[in-house]
Amino acid sequence: MSALPPIGPNPLATNPVTTTGSPNIALPTAAEKPEAGDRNLFMDLMARANEDQIRSEEAIQGLVSGENQDVQQVVMEVVKAEMSFQIFMEVRNQIVDSYNELMRMQF
C-alpha cells in the first residue's frame, strides 16, 4: 500500500473577522437622542415658511388695495411662499415616515 500525501491546511477553515477600519470610530447607539440642532432646523424651516406666507399675503393685500402695482413681484412672493410650504411639508412627511418605520422595526 502506498503512503498518502500529508494533509495540508483545511481550505474550509474560517478565520476570525478582524476590522481594518479606524478603531476610533464610535458607532451610534439606540440610547442616543437627536441633537437639539435637528429640532431647531425643523423649527427654523417652519418659521421661514410662515414668514414667506405672511409676506405673500401682504403682497396680495397691497396689490388689491392699490399700494403695489408690481404684479410680477406679487406673483414671485406667492410662488416663493408655495415653494417654502412644499419643502416644509416634504421634510415633515419624511420625519413622520421615518418615525413610522422605526415603530414598525420595534415590533
TrEMBL record:
Keywords: Bacterial flagellum, Cell projection, Cilium, Flagellum. It is found in: Bacterial flagellum basal body. One of its GO terms (biological process) is bacterial-type flagellum-dependent cell motility. The gene is fliE. GO terms for molecular function: cytoskeletal motor activity; structural molecule activity. InterPro entries: FliE. This is Flagellar hook-basal body complex protein FliE. It comes from Stieleria neptunia. Pfam families: FliE. NCBIfam families: fliE. Belongs to the FliE family. Residues 1-33 are annotated as: Disordered. GO terms for cellular component: bacterial-type flagellum basal body. Its main location: other. Residues 12-23 have a biased composition (Polar residues).
